[in-house]
Design goal:
The chain has about 140 residues and is of the alpha+beta class. About 20% of the residues lie in helices and about 45% in strands. The protein is built from two helices and eight strands; from the N terminus they run ααββββββββ.
């Protein structure tokens, strides 16, 4: 009886891990982005910080302006409709067909994001790290070119 419960529990754990791995693997379509990174990044991005119980305002907007290819891009970042927005210097990194960006906010928070696709949508997904080092999940979706 005890052995049967242990085996049943073991199979349940294996099934749960397998389903979880399959579900997370299908969430992002991690295509390679072989063209100029600027062609994917230019535009308006909107999204939220998953701040949980924090009092942190979560909605954010990032606008990356059309410009010539460079490893540093001019952008505008912040909380729309507030004084908590302004210019941002966005650093672009590419690695094996993947595109990443990083920048600091006006308040000193560090943002690290990677370009990915969910269905037909382009997203920037990664972390928002407060000046004190507390990381939060952060995702932006491209709204327009």
């Amino acid at each position: 009886m005890n052995r049967q419960i242990v085996l049943s529990f073991g199979w349940f754990i294996i099934l749960a891990v397998t389903i979880g791995a399959c579900a997370s693997a299908g969430y992002y379509k991690n295509d390679r982005f072989d063209n100029d990174p600027i062609s994917y990044l230019v535009g308006e991005w909107e999204g939220t910080i998953n701040a949980g119980e924090s009092s942190l305002s979560t909605f954010r907007k990032l606008t990356i302006y059309p410009q010539s290819a460079n490893s540093t891009l001019s952008a505008h970042y912040g909380i729309p409709g507030t004084r908590w927005q302004g210019p941002a210097q966005v650093y672009v990194e590419t690695f094996d067909g993947k595109i990443g960006i990083r920048f600091r906010t006006g308040s000193g928070s560090r943002i690290d994001l990677w370009l990915a696709r969910i269905g037909n949508d382009l997203i920037l997904d990664g972390t928002f790290n407060t000046p004190s080092g507390v990381p939060y999940q952060f995702m932006l979706t491209k709204k327009r070119e």
